[in-house]
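Slide 14.
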Amino acid sequence: MDYKKSKAPVNTETRELPELWKSTGNIYESVAIIGKRANQIGVEIKQDLNKKLQEFASYNDSLDEVFENREQIEISRYYEKLPNPTLLATQEFIEGNIYWRDPSQDNQEEEAQ
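Slide 15: predicted structure.
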């Protein structure tokens, strides 16, 4: 996913609490969902960054060091300018783009039937 095209703000922004809990009915559940999604996004961004940096890595056997080149620096700057994973996850949650389910609710529904 191209996170640069996301509508998420780059800086922290004040949110209305009812906007966060309206889909779950519980602010703590909403925060837990956003936190889990933020972790997923963070891992995905890190893997993508490492993959792109490895394409330009140059190894020198005599010094056992990895030298950064101009392309690596530009890629790193691009990823530094991306919104924080928590901001991205919050925006996805507000837009309704996150799927979640509560296993305890699933069990209650099965017992009721």
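Speaker note: The chain has five helices and two strands.
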